[in-house]
Design a protein that fits this description.
binds zinc ion; single chain; 3 domains; three-stranded antiparallel beta sheet; elongated; 16 strands; alpha+beta; 39% helix
Length: 498
């Protein structure tokens, strides 16, 4: 029997606010000078301390909800999620349960997924209706506000607790189980991260733990619509961990069914070093948490004016930008997706286009190719070269002032020394040879000096042509116009046939 995975993701994202979710302590635990300095009676759970909701965090949460096409609940409430753990000083986490701030949204997916079931589509009136869109939509079940826990620092025989992180605003974004491949889950997670970064609500810095994934996974026979027992893999702190853990878990469950067993619903951890999922506890159900409305916080009453004011703060999001780049600049979808993956890169690209006389297509080719290669290699930001300078360089290649290969040399030098392209071209003497007579002289010399190769070429060994071109490139230090050189070289060879 063939099995297919069913994947739903829960994504936890800390919000970039100055203060914590329910008190005025600094939320910037990363730059705290030492443990337990950004704390107060509220975030350490002292009796009698009263929480007050952070206005900025509510705005950012709604912003995320709107970006994910959710409807905002004008009336939403906080709830207590009761459980004990040393990193949870109150013995409960303030979260949202019955009425989250946002729900019933969707995110357009790049890779085609299994089509949603008809019933599923109908149950969500907010889904886009365009032809074919149902193929590429992951539904967002809910976006709710909660608070982060403290940090446990595990020593050899004991652990130390640092409350600087306790109470930092945390958003949980829960998808429906709409993903049918690991790639689709990865695509969804990547898009959520990009959107959070575009909105400026989260840095996406996974090594710092500000964004964490949980994968819910089940498998079922292909063709079946049932939702089987799932496992939940906690605290996946990188895209690599998400990928490997999901792949491992899918295989594990298939093996269980194939040997006639049953998957049990449980919470798993991911052991990155060994590459296996490990059972942590049998999965608790909602009733185990004894959720009840938070008595210390009033329900949130949001009105249309407040929501509208947030709506106008929505920037152009990656998906829309990608579509615009494809139509306005005639880019391929993959070029457009690459250039919109980071807002700073997309803005830089558009700035270069504004300065350049070259076509957006050639600007895109330079940025997606040689420019990104340098960025990754040198680990620097796009704006380490001014958009104007890069535009000048690209224009010099376009108008044949320099050759494409010289362009690469100049770009590397710009990254190295920060110089201006025109000056570098001068210093390195890279002006392209476009003078037909000069190129003809080079070609004639090469052909005269290599009668043996000329003979072999004319006898049918056509692969030698690249060798002749290589000789020309060497003789001119890559500065000869390649189109012209090719033409003259072919002509020269043919003339020697007689
Ligand atoms: P809980 O809140 O207890 O973690 P939920 O039922 O709300 O559980 O679902 C949590 C996540 O699990 C959601 O992302 C959902 O899409 C996913 N999920 C639910 N059922 C399945 C299933 N059978 N297979 C895979 N994922 C599932
Ligand atoms: Mg969960
Ligand atoms: Zn506090």
């Amino acid at each position: 029997m063939k099995y297919e995975p069913v994947i739903g993701l829960e994504i936890h994202a800390e919000l970039l606010t100055n203060s914590k979710m329910f008190c005025s302590c600094s939320a910037d635990y990363a730059s705290a000078p030492e443990p337990n300095v950004n704390i107060c009676p509220t975030c350490t759970g002292l009796p009698g301390a009263m929480p007050v909701a952070n206005k900025k965090a509510l705005e950012l949460s709604a912003l995320v909800g709107l970006a994910l096409n959710c409807s905002i609940n004008k009336h939403n409430t906080f709830a207590r999620k009761n459980y004990y753990y040393p990193d949870l000083p109150k013995g409960y986490q303030i979260s949202q349960y019955e009425l989250p701030i946002a729900e019933k949204g969707w995110l357009q997916a790049t890779s085609p997924l299994a089509p949603l079931l008809k019933g599923e589509r109908d149950s969500n009136s907010l889904l886009p209706t365009g032809e074919g869109l149902g193929m590429g939509v992951v539904r967002v079940r809910r976006v709710h506000i909660e608070e982060d826990t403290a940090k446990l620092n595990h020593e050899k025989n004991y652990a130390l607790v640092d409350f600087n992180r306790a109470g930092v605003p945390l958003l949980e974004i829960v998808s429906e189980p709409d993903m049918r491949t690991v790639e689709a889950a990865l695509d969804y997670a990547t898009k959520i991260r990009a959107i959070l970064r575009y909105l400026g609500v989260n840095s996406g810095d996974m090594e710092k733990g500000v964004l964490r994934f949980e994968a819910n996974i089940s498998v079922r026979p292909v063709g079946s619509n049932e939702l089987r027992k799932r496992t939940e893999i906690k605290n996946l702190n990188s895209f690599r961990a998400l990928t490997r853990a999901s792949q491992y878990e899918i295989e594990r469950q298939i093996k269980i069914y194939e040997s006639g067993g049953e998957v049990i619903q449980e919470t798993l951890g991911w052991d990155d070093a060994r590459g296996v999922t490990i059972s942590q506890r049998s999965k608790e159900d909602a009733q185990d948490y004894r959720y009840f409305p938070e008595p210390d916080l009033p329900p949130l009453k949001l009105d249309d004016a407040w929501i509208d004011a947030i709506k106008i703060r929505l920037p152009e999001l990656p998906e829309a930008k990608t579509a615009r780049f494809i139509t306005d600049f005639e880019l391929t979808p993959s070029e457009a997706r690459l250039l919109t993956s980071e807002l700073s890169l997309a803005n830089y690209f558009e700035e270069v286009i504004r300065h350049a006389k070259s076509s957006p297509k050639s600007v895109s080719a330079w940025i997606a190719g040689e420019f990104m290669r340098n960025l990754n290699e040198l680990k620097v930001e796009a704006d380490s070269i001014s958009a104007k300078s890069l535009a000048q360089l690209i224009d010099m290649v376009t108008d044949k002032t320099i050759s494409g290969s010289s362009g690469k040399v100049v770009l590397a030098e710009m990254f190295k020394s920060g110089g201006e392209p025109a000056q570098i071209v001068k210093d390195k003497n890279l002006l392209q040879l476009t003078d037909a007579d000069a190129i003809q002289a080079v070609v004639t010399k090469i052909l005269d000096e290599h009668p043996k190769e000329v003979g072999e070429y004319l006898a049918g060994k056509e692969t030698l042509f690249q060798w002749f071109m290589g000789q020309a490139a060497r003789a001119t230090k890559g500065k000869a116009d390649p189109v012209m050189t090719k033409e003259l070289m072919l002509k020269g060879l043919e003339e020697r046939r007689k």
